Amino acid sequence: MEVRDCLISAPGKAILHGEHAVVHGKVALAVSLNLRTYLKLKARSDGKVCINLPNIDTFVCWELSELKQLTSSKLQRLDAELVKRLRKFIGVTNENLDSSASAILAFLYIYLSLFGSGDMPSLTVSVWSELPTGAGLGSSAAYSVCLAAAFLCATGNIPTPLKEWEQTGRWCQEDLELINSWAFQGEKIIHGNPSGVDNALLLENHPLIIRVPLLRILLTNTKVPRSTKVLVARVKDKINKFPSVMIPVLDSVDAISCTCEKVLTEMTCEPITGDHYNILEELIDINQHHLNVIGVGHPSLDMLCQVTAARGLHSKLTGAGGGGCGITLLRPGAGTMKDLRDCGYDCWETSIGGPGVQQHFPSSVKEEIMEVLNRY
Amino acid sequence: MEVRDCLISAPGKAILHGEHAVVHGKVALAVSLNLRTYLKLKARSDGKVCINLPNIDTFVCWELSELKQLTSSKLQRLDAELVKRLRKFIGVTNENLDSSASAILAFLYIYLSLFGSGDMPSLTVSVWSELPTGAGLGSSAAYSVCLAAAFLCATGNIPTPLKEWEQTGRWCQEDLELINSWAFQGEKIIHGNPSGVDNALLLENHPLIIRVPLLRILLTNTKVPRSTKVLVARVKDKINKFPSVMIPVLDSVDAISCTCEKVLTEMTCEPITGDHYNILEELIDINQHHLNVIGVGHPSLDMLCQVTAARGLHSKLTGAGGGGCGITLLRPGAGTMKDLRDCGYDCWETSIGGPGVQQHFPSSVKEEIMEVLNRY
Known about the structure:
Two copies of one chain form a homodimer. Chain A is α+β, with helices and mostly antiparallel strands and about 375 residues long. Chain A has helices spanning about 65-70, 80-90, 100-115, 140-155, 175-190, 195-200, 230-240, 245-270, 275-295, 300-310, 340, 365-375, and strands spanning about 5-15, 30-45, 50-55, 60-65, 125-130, 170, 215-220, 315-320, 325-330, 345-350, 360.
């Protein structure tokens, strides 16, 4: 079997409002983040299957004959037996996988599940991501979505959406749901038992995704390491310590998510005004205070807020907090933020509300990304 | 009639938690502030009645014969006719009184109400206050309480509580209530229509006052001027704009006041531990965030919080916010705060939970205060 080459990308995700509150049954507002993961699938004719993940220094090739011994029938639910065989195959024994091992495992699992019952193609998959890994920005979900879309396309389970006269192509709702279900298998392997939110977000028009106007943001990684588990536990402790003080704060966060969703929906229907931005900024400030109240702030995030406030911009943490990443809303015309790089932070000027998973003509992808992907 | 000399002091007040929320029906926690107003009453024999208020550069003397023309019968409710006559007498025509005119008006009103129906004494009242005026620290209430206590003592309506073997003397509950009712008349003249909270607070054992352990605090005046009226309106606007976001925040503030009250009461009954301080500090931090959320923060107050946080201390605004004063809890052994004076702020290291109105032997009053009072 020979597959057709293809080029696919999927966005990251950012939580606008409701991180932590979502753990306690409140609404969270997550949006697609236009830092993307790009996957190039290229047919080979030498009977090898290769994966190149330069972000995490992972480059592996197998003989098709090796992989054929691991084949399984197609399964929609995670085939625990196959995962076990794959772990043994790649020589992983402990429970906690590093990012390289879990990425390989997800790749092999989806590859074998989709091709294993028939003619297995010789191919190379190369992936390059603009997303920092492990920063709560959905990099592993974007990877799984790209893998699922590429292999489903290669097997003919979903069509190639690219029209000759267009730079990019997107799938219909039904196809997106199929991509999502397979991507979710990859996520389960990488994360254990994810909520499924990350994938769903990457597939536009899913009920969990609200229509969001394309808004410029600054994403800042303070590079302060933190443990999501520890932070979630800290919030829980604080709620137990001061329930009457904290539960109303979660209610307020819930109302912030709902109010923000309403404003964003309005912004997709009517001309965007300064008032829309004023409200979005006020909600960002309020929620950042609430996140400090529930105990997930950090001096590095205070610094982010101060530096951007000095330019009239409004920031909040996004994700787990306690360091990690912050998001700053950029009004049209807002300048760049050299000051933040002076703090030692990584910054990306990007946008939210961009397209979900899509197929590309190579010419529609930034040159420097194609340059990385074409190396392999 | 000749009166006996006396020396009286009353404390200021500070709001620990619940400023602004109290406007919306929530609990506020106000405590006595050990920055005090001192009043010295001295008999004269020259038929003059004099008042000296060096804090506000006010020094006035009248002939008893002038005042006798203004006499009224004793009244517990504010005698609008007398106030009208007094305004005319001191030559005030517009509605908004300056602090000098309102202090004189309150003095004359209480003097004439209490002495007017009988033999009017010739005397000098001199007042010196450690409290900044107009900073929301109850300076006018402390003044009214001192006036009422001094004149009620002079008329024999309440006893002289000073025992020979004690430095200070305090009145019983019944006498305190009489002082309070007269002080309230003075407050009404000064403020128009006060809530009565300020006075009640100055009189210990009143239902509105909780038992508070003596706690060291730092009181900081940012000297940023603000209008309470404008700030109250701003909060109301924000609640109307985002009701579902803001109403839970007020509920949380209410719970902070109740939780703090509970902890303070515990601290009066059991040995004070570091855990008590930890909780008080956490509540201060949370409420300061909430006050920012409801829109009454100010960069000068952020600076206060930052400078004190750098020393491991926790601060919040007290009163109207938008500048004005902040309060910092000082743990035992906490040092002085030169850094704040470097910001251009006024700082007082004082305490909360100190005694209410009391009578003094001169030797129990700080020398520098006696020196000011004895000048007149």
